[in-house]
Amino acid sequence: MHLLLHRQVTRPGYWVHTGMYRLLSHSSSAKVVKRDMAPFPQDAPTVEGPAEFSRAGIGGFFQQKPVLKNPFLGDALLQGYLRRHLPSEAVYSDLLVFGERLVYEVDGWGRECETTPPKLVTYDPWGCRVDRIVTSPAWQRMKDLSAQEGLVAIGYERTYGEWSRVYQMCKLYLFSPSSGLYTCPLAMTDGAAKVIQALGVSGPTQEAFSRLTSRNPEDFWTSGQWMTERKGGSDVGSGTETVALPQSDGTYRLSGFKWFTSATDADMTLTLGRVADRDGRTTPGSRGLSLFYAAVRDEDGMVQGIEVQRLKDKLGTRQMPTAELLLDGLTDADCLNHECTGRGVACIANMLTLTRIHNSVSAVSGMRRVLQLARDYATRRSAFGKPLKDHPLHMQTLTRMEVETRGAFLLVMDVCRLIGREETGHASQLDTHLLRLLTPVAKLYTGKQAIAVISEGLESFGGQGYIEDTGLPAMLRDAQVLSIWEGTTNVLSLDVLRCISVSQSYFLPSLSVAVRSVDSALCGLREFLQEAVLKPPGYLELAARDLAYSLARIYIGALLIDHASWEGASQSDAYAALRWCEQELCPVLSNAATGCYNTETLPQDAALVYEASARQ
Ligand code: MFK
């Protein structure tokens, strides 16, 4: 110590470092990185050396980073779920190998997509307008990989019958956190394929369908979904201004302005517009909307009849180009609902369903990834004398995250199961209703959960969770979009309300087998609905979000109990169900009891929100 102090005085930077290096090298809990430095000789004279070549004294302890391991092997619930429902050796080994590929290859590309975001090149060096979106090589590799791995194709090949969607979505669930947001174009591609298939694959969409569902990278296409205009993000029916002029060859020429177009480097798009009559008049509202298909690139990959106005400067999802597009007479657009003009929203609804399911898959996969990293880190990081994993409070936090994630996973997989049944003709009427109801429930609930769980996950890394180049902050930024795009929480809550009012009776009895807490929550929900219909108009709208949350919690509770009752279930499955049911499962009932949804308080709500500006 004496020697150390002496050296600190004589050569601060160099000797402090060396001394610390020696001390820490005896510590068992700390990781000491042996840096590439000359050993300090015991009896070295304290003569001045060439200072400009000495190392900075930054200490010898370096925290080990969390290590990503095969996400398939590290996911007990995913494996249990597949063992129970899809016990296929081929599926198991595909996911196992894919999991390895994600760790050793793809995850690095995902990071590259984040650090090399897309750029818009508007003009070439000679002044010609080109509107080229330049993406990173990693983004392009993601496209090839998506085709090779069948990330869209699996859903259409249907090798596993009604379980094919579950298989596809499990693979996407593994892929999503490493994908550099390539899951976004895949969501829309899948949605477009489903829309085309539902409307009948023929004429110009024949080639599109086979490309969207191809496993050959040379042929594979992605699709955009251009719905959002400046007036209509949620209110598509009245906000869409795009006009479609019929052409003599039966196609349409589109003019309008699309305000958010994600993955704008796509090869084709589905979009909405209003067909103009001979006098240029269009029908307002939802009834005036038609659905169009257009291939948007020529043989050289250049857009035609489109000006890319600018790329969006976004909070997250920076890996992916999102653009404002001026449709400046986009030609050769085909109307997909020729026979029934004005059915645009209904025709694109299949795409909404699919992208909302993809959104839910991405949400639950983000939760799972942050947990996998956090639990690994808890074995590597020590504080207050022991690894984080040995601190009860830390483990309680991880347990709560785990329970949330398990519940979300089962909810999302149940929706995938239902869509698989519907697509293969196995769905009962109840299944079809449940699919319609649970798609928005899963989307709205998991979108919000993902933000909360990932935020909590970042905290479990302490300050490192806030450091950009760990890759962790991007997870939170990217999660924030999950509750916004493809329908915000409130828009989807109102959608849930629409589904319930259509067929209120189908949902409730089906869950009556659940355990006591689920059962009593279910009774509470029934009681609430019975009373709510007698309330003044507007009451149910104010309750819509809590109602959707109650449905999600009760249904997830039933799924967790169901999974825990399976003969192959683990003790943790049962424990997860118990923990889930500890929370309030029917918040809409308790909030109703406190008068939360009384419409008389609306003026006071407004007064409260606007108080500051009213005083100005
Ligand atoms: C990582 C993965 C992420 C994927 C990201 C992709 C990035 C894309 C970026 C975007 O976010 S694009 C913008 C997304 N925009 C929305 O999601 C719109 C949100 N608004 C709604 O969902 C509104 O509820 C809706 C636009 C659908 C309301 O429009 P309308 O015209 O008022 O519809 P209406 O009258 O309720 O329904 C018209 C028809 O469509 C009805 O059919 P019928 O006439 O036969 O009865 C409805 O039943 C049907 N419909 C509406 N919503 C449906 C649906 N059918 C099935 N599912 C639905 N969700």
TrEMBL record:
Keywords from the named record: FAD, Flavoprotein, Oxidoreductase
SUPFAM superfamilies in the record: Acyl-CoA dehydrogenase C-terminal domain-like, Acyl-CoA dehydrogenase NM domain-like
Domain Acyl-CoA dehydrogenase/oxidase C-terminal: 342-497
Lineage: superkingdom: Eukaryota
An example molecular function term from Gene Ontology annotations: acyl-CoA dehydrogenase activity
Domain Acyl-CoA oxidase/dehydrogenase middle: 225-328
Domain Acyl-CoA dehydrogenase 11-like C-terminal: 503-610
InterPro entries: ACDH-11_C (IPR053998), Acyl-CoA_dehydrogenase-like (IPR052904), Acyl-CoA_Oxase/DH_mid-dom (IPR006091), AcylCo_DH-like_C (IPR036250), AcylCo_DH/oxidase_C (IPR009075), AcylCoA_DH/oxidase_NM_dom_sf (IPR009100), AidB_N (IPR041504)
Pfam family, one: Acyl-CoA_dh_1
Cofactor: FAD
Domain (Adaptive response protein AidB N-terminal): residue spans on this chain: 70-198
Family: Belongs to the acyl-CoA dehydrogenase family.
Name the record gives this protein: Acyl-CoA dehydrogenase family, member 11
Species this chain originates from: Esox lucius
